[in-house]
Amino acid sequence: MDTGNSISLENLLPLPQEIKDKFTDLEEIRRKRQTEAYESLVRKKTPRDVIKQRPIRGGKMADYVPAWWFVEQANALFGHLWSFEVVDQFIGDNQVWVQGKVTITIPGEDVVETFPDGSQRAYKRPSITIIKTQFGGHDIAKKDGKVLDIGDTLKSAATDSMKKCLTLIGIAADVYGDREMLELERKQEDNAEEIGQKLRIAYKEGEAMGWDEEQVNARIQLDLGKNISELEGEDGLEIIRIMRAAKKEMTDAS
């Protein structure tokens, strides 16, 4: 995958041969890095030595890739013909978010097409611009209730946004795809815990009304049209509302 950004010795001013040789070595290194970055992108396989771990909510550990590697990969793939800019930002009481945009330019190039009869057609392939946008966020660091450094927090959110933009073109997509699954599992666990807490309250309310757990479950299923195992986070509040309504109906009937 050549972006047409290679060093051209022909366009350089006259230089000693030993300097030209160094430029040739650098070009070989550039092409090697570009090939490695392209293979990582196509194979969706991030090198294990750049994958780190850190704690996330819920007491679990999640894989992540440092920002420097994203920048290095983008430079290798696109020859520095890419940019990141902050489109919008917001500072809340406890968190900031940043909307960022990555713009990638694939330069046009002169192409000569040869046909079976030996004839040729020369044309210029137009340049291509790729734009990806994503949000990034970060908790505001505080000490004794005072914000420590909002600038660093915004930079962290911007970095998060940049990385998410670059995952949209496939960089480290294998790592962050797995992380999304881990976060989904965490949310499901949090949801199950929340529903469990609300059900315990409902069973206690039902016991005071002379209902057993099966009767409580039957009333919840009747009102929500769902089995207990299908309940989601927002249904937790509905469980309490249903039991209060059932208690009022029993009181009114007595």
How would you sum up this structure in a few lines?
This protein has 254 residues and is of the alpha+beta class. The chain has helices at 17-43, 67-78, 150-167, 173-209, 213-224, 235-253, and strands at 52-56, 60-64, 82-91, 95-106, 109-114, 120-125, 128-139, 142-143, 146-147. Strands 3-4-7 form a 3-stranded antiparallel beta sheet.
Task: Identify the notable features of this structure and list them briefly.
disordered N terminus; two-stranded antiparallel ribbon; alpha+beta; 49% helix; three-stranded antiparallel beta sheet; 24% strand; 254 residues
General description of the model:
There is one protein chain. The chain is of the alpha+beta class. The protein folds into 3 domains: about 1-80, no CATH class; about 80-170, no CATH class; about 185-254, no CATH class. Helices cover about 50% and strands about 25% of the residues. The protein contains 6 helices and 9 strands. The chain has helices at about 15-45, 65-80, 150-165, 175-210, 215-225, 235-254; strands at about 50-55, 60-65, 80-90, 95-105, 110-115, 120-125, 130-140, 140-145, 145. The strands form 4 sheets. It has a 3-stranded antiparallel sheet with strand order 3-4-7. Strand 5 (about 110-115) and strand 6 (about 120-125) form a beta hairpin. Helix 1 (about 15-45) crosses helix 2 (about 65-80) and helix 4 (about 175-210) runs parallel beside helix 6 (about 235-254). The protein is elongated and about 100 Å long. The protein starts with 16 loop residues before the first helix and ends with a helix.
